[in-house]
Amino acid sequence: MLQLIFLIEDPGSANFIAFGDIVFDSVHNYFYATTTDFSTFGTGAVYDISGGDYVSSFPAGISAEALAVNYTTFTSLTQKNESDFMVYPNPAMDFISIKNISGEGK
């Protein structure tokens, strides 16, 4: 059984500052935490799981009590500005013709 002990300093509970939410990103091994006083400010911080080191900050609203990790993968294809072929007639009824206009593949 793997036991993980991870300590983050008290954000200031003596001054009514508390964690709003903490979430774990299992892909990058980071913890994301928000701190707030529930009335005037909210901040976000990123911590590395390997040693609890502070990594960076992120914007958080006042009383940010719900965090989510988005694991979306973005991919794209390069868009060509001009076509290498022509399709006609448009509109078509029974058939279409496709003509190579780039001069390649003749």
Question: What order do the helices and strands follow?
Answer: EEEEEE
| Number of E-state strands | 6
Coarse shape: elongated
Euclidean distance between termini CA atoms: 65 Å
Tally of individual helices = 0
Query: Roughly what fraction of the amino acids lie in strands?
Result: 25-35%
Q: Could you name the ranges where pLDDT drops below 50 across 5 or more consecutive residues? A: none
Indicate the structural class: mainly beta
Q: Radius of gyration over alpha carbons?
A: 27 Å
Percentage of residues assigned to helices: under 10%
Strand order of the largest sheet: 1-2-3-4
* Sheet with most strands: 4 strands, antiparallel
pLDDT averaged over residues? 80
Keywords:
106 residues, mainly beta
